[in-house]
Write a structure and sequence with these properties.
By secondary structure, the protein is mostly helical. It is 86% helix and 0% strand. The chain contains 2 helices and no strands. The longest helix is centred in the middle third of the chain and has 72 residues.
Length: 111
C-alpha cells in the first residue's frame, strides 16, 4: 500500500469515527441555544405571572375587605350562587368594568 492510499483510508476512518462526535457537539450547541431561548420565555412568563398575581392579590384584598365589612347583609342565601353570592362584589366588578371601558373609549377619541 502506498502512502497516498493509506492516508486516504486513515482520513476516511477518522471521519467515520468522529462523525458522531461532531453530530453530538452540534446537537449540544442547539440544545444550549434552545435552553437559553426557553429560559428567556420562561422569565417573561414568570414576570407576567408575577404582575398578574400582584393584580389578583390586590383585587382579592379589596374584595376581601369589602366582604368582611359588608358581608352578611349582602350575601345571597338561596339555591343560586354567583361568585359565592356577594352582591356588593358583583356591583363593584360591574362598576370597575364600566369605568375601564369608558376610559378606553375616551383615550381612543383623543388620539
Amino acid at each position: 500500500m502506498d502512502s497516498k492510499t493509506l492516508t486516504t483510508v486513515l482520513i476516511v476512518i477518522v471521519c467515520a469515527l468522529l462523525l458522531p462526535v461532531f453530530i453530538g457537539i452540534i446537537g449540544g450547541i442547539f440544545g444550549l441555544i434552545g435552553s437559553l431561548i426557553g429560559g428567556v420565555f420562561g422569565l417573561i412568563g414568570g414576570l407576567f405571572g408575577m404582575v398578574f398575581g400582584l393584580i389578583g392579590s390586590l383585587f382579592g384584598a379589596v374584595f376581601g375587605i369589602f366582604g368582611w365589612l359588608f358581608g352578611e347583609p349582602f350575601h345571597w342565601h338561596g339555591p343560586i350562587h354567583f361568585l359565592d353570592g356577594d352582591v356588593f362584589a358583583v356591583i363593584l366588578i360591574i362598576v370597575v368594568i364600566v369605568l375601564i371601558s369608558r376610559s378606553r373609549n375616551r383615550s381612543r377619541r383623543t388620539h
